[in-house]
Amino acid sequence: MTWAEMQPLLRDACLDTLFMVWWSTVYAVLGGLPLGLLLVLTDRGGLLQNVAVNKVLGAILNLGRSLPFIILIVWLIPFSRMVVGTSIGPSAAVVALAIGAVPFFARLVETAVREVDHGLVEAVQSMGGGTWTLIFKVLLPQALPSLLAGLTTTVITLIGYSAMAGAVGGGGLGNLAITYGYQRREDALMNVTILLLIAIVTVVQIAGDLAVRRLASRGGRQAAPVGLRRLLPARPKPAAAGTAAVAAEPEPALDKAV
Amino acid sequence: MITTKGLTKVYRSRGREVTALDGVDLHVREGEVYGVIGQSGAGKSTLIRCVNLLERPSSGTVTVAGQDLTALAGRGQRAGAELRRARSRIGMVFQHFNLLSSRTVQANIELPLEILGVSGKERERKALELLDLVGLADKAKAYPGQLSGGQKQRVGIARALAGDPKVLLSDESTSALDPETTRSILQLLRDLNQQLGLTVLLITHEMDVVKTICDSAALMKGGRVVESGTVSELLATPGSELAAELFPVGGEPSGPDRTVVDVTFHGDAATQPVISQLSRTYNIDISILGAAMDTVCGKQVGRMRIELPGRFEENVVPIGFLREQGLQVDVADVQTPAPAAALLKEGAK
Ligand SMILES: Nc1ncnc2c1ncn2[C@@H]1O[C@H](COP(=O)(O)OP(=O)(O)O)[C@@H](O)[C@H]1O
Ligand SMILES: [Mg+2]
Predict the structure, then answer these.
(1) What percent of the residues of chain A are helix, what percent strand, and what percent coil, each to the nearest 5?
(2) 20 to 30 A from A246, CA-CA: which of A154, B133, B143, B313?
(3) Tell me, what DSSP letter sits at residue B270?
(4) Is residue B228 in some structural domain?
(5) Hey, where are the domains in chain A?
């Protein structure tokens, strides 16, 4: 297969992959953000404590996360057909990808929001802030760097899932690799596809890390998010160093305590 | 300004019960700085968090500025609109500052005003004015992560003042700071108390804090207030543990059959040559075991531990003489049998 033959195939496949990843990310955020928040808020001691809602929600999200994605796609074929009128092609894949990504992102949101120091919640409660104030002025802004890191992870996972969706007729780079690279033994095409996938993942990771780092550079962050730490293993983190210094300060006059 | 009556808080977790507050009656007068001191776990934080109902008391009432907050609490976990409005009139500062790292210093101070629905222009004006008040006018655009501990606490104080509160609650606000910064923050609190007529309720485990700025103090142990009063009252209370801690004097008697007496003098009495008078009048030898002068809440106070020869019974007259001179005299427990000491305290009252 010549480069000229490959080019249109690759271009279409790339666009399909981007289409699937973009829309499933949008739905993952629209669904995962509120669900993840709700999971924290309804937990014991939370602002909207409701044990029943919390248990049910947690169970549903765990169910969604424990199903292997490939099974989820196959299982969702009838549902995809109902929603978008077809069970093959990128649009059908988006249904399954979104449903797979919502619980994934929701759990990451949960972790990110739980990390927010409860002292901040108390401080804002002490000024008379209500639940909405706490969500929009404390929890979400304070969790933003972790949320962005979680989003990056979600997008990268979705790129992988979209390739899997390709294997069962979803289109995109995965589909190309299976139909041409594997079934027709087009090794060159296979390799280009792989390089493209690596390139996309790398771009997403770097963009995500840059965004996280920009936020973290405001200083005072307790810790750099995971993605950043992985890329910059040796660099000392000024924010973390500052926190440590405060913690290490001696408590004065303890000996004079009552 | 702040009154708690029979305040009790019992934490229940997994079958175990912890009584953090056990019938606390506290009365903080308008315009004073009131310190609550006690060891870790005494229930101080629980007490101060009950004052603005961050923690719901199990029983008892909290009244702030004439408003019964416990009545506003409602049933559920969430604070109703009325309680939230009442809270916005009570400022609070924290040990670990609790500033939002996602906002600039100015935006942190504007947050309480956003909650109150103040317009953007007015918020900015007020925030800058407060920053000026706490001496950080040049830090408006900085992020909390770029400030030192003392600066962070100044921002915390400015934020607490944004809603023009009459009352400021401070939970160990200087415990994470070095001694020098602690002094400057305490000075700031004192200035605010005097300039704005702010009533301050602060809790601490450091006696120096009480000594530096408190008009009144209470000692907490195991969820109860065991001593309380104005600092001068406490210093004048024989056997007061707080007084002894506020102003310790040491010294061991040189042998058996001696009477050890702690003499406290305020103001004028400090200038009288009482000890030499005592020695001359009764022809006794007096040893000074320990002595100190100190400023407690802006007042000169002296304390001296002296030793008189002979047992207490033989020294009733000299001790009476000292009391006549307007001095506060406590017979120290050192080597005195406990029942006798207890009787003496009764007698002194
Ligand atoms: N949320 C809580 N759940 C259970 N026990 C608590 C809780 N908060 C405080 N306590 C207990 O109440 C007691 C008083 O705590 P606290 O008010 O924090 O003391 P202090 O501030 O004087 O150190 C301690 O024994 C502590 O373990
Ligand atoms: Mg405490």
Answers:
(1) 80, 0, 20
(2) B133
(3) G
(4) yes
(5) 3-248
> Is residue B271 very low, low, confident or very high in pLDDT (cuts 50, 70, 90)?
low
Yes or no: say if A28 and A158 are a contact pair by the CB < 8 Å rule. yes
Residue B318 is part of a domain; what is its CATH number? 3.30.70.260
Provide, rounded to the nearest whole percent, the portion of chain B with pLDDT above 90.
58
Residue identified by tokens 């409602």 is B74
Indicate the residue of A119, A249, A252 with minimum beta-carbon distance to B98: A119
Instruction: Compute the C-alpha angle A80/A85/A87, nearest 5°.
Output: 45
- Number of structural domains in chain B: 2
Question: Pairing state of beta strands B67-68 and B258-266?
Answer: unpaired
Which residues sit opposite B225 in a β-bridge?
A: B220
Q: What is the pLDDT of residues B213-222, one digit of tens each?
A: 999 999 999 9
Q: What is the layout of strands, in order, in the sheet containing B299-309?
A: B287-296, B299-309, B258-266, B328-331
Choose the final residue of a domain: B204, B236, B268.
B236
Write out pLDDT tens, residues A89-136: 888 889 889 999 999 999 999 999 999 999 999 999 999 999 999 999
Which two tokens mark A223? 């810790």
Interface of B with A in 105-164 (CB under 8 A): 111-112, 114-116, 143-146, 149, 159, 162-163
- DSSP for residue A257: B
Ligand number, closest to the Cα atom of B39: 1
3-state secondary structure of B232: helix
B49 Cβ inside 6 Å of ligand 1? no
| The residue count for chain A | 258
Looking at the fold, whether B300 and B156 belong to one and the same domain comes out as no
The boundaries of the domain holding residue B276 are 247-336
Per-residue pLDDT reduced to its tens digit, A158-205: 999 988 887 777 788 888 888 888 888 888 888 999 999 999 999 999
Residues B150, B115: one domain?
yes
CATH of the domain at B52: 3.40.50.300
Q: Which chain A residues touch B179 with a CB distance below 8 Å?
A: 252-253
Q: How far is it, in rounded angstroms, from Cα A213 to Cα A227?
A: 10
Confidence of residue A250 (pLDDT cuts 50, 70, 90): very low
CATH topology of domain A3-248: MetI-like fold (1.10.3720)
Last-in-domain residue among B236, B261, B284: B236
| Residue of B39, B45, B46 to mutate, ligand 1, most atoms within 8 A of C-beta | B46
Q: Residue B131 and residue B142: Cα distance in Å, rounded?
A: 12
- What the block records as the tokens of B268 is 């004028």
Write the ipTM: 0.82
Q: In this structure, is residue B348 part of a structural domain?
A: no
Strands B59-64 vs B67-68: parallel, antiparallel or unpaired: antiparallel
pLDDT > 70: percent of chain B: 92
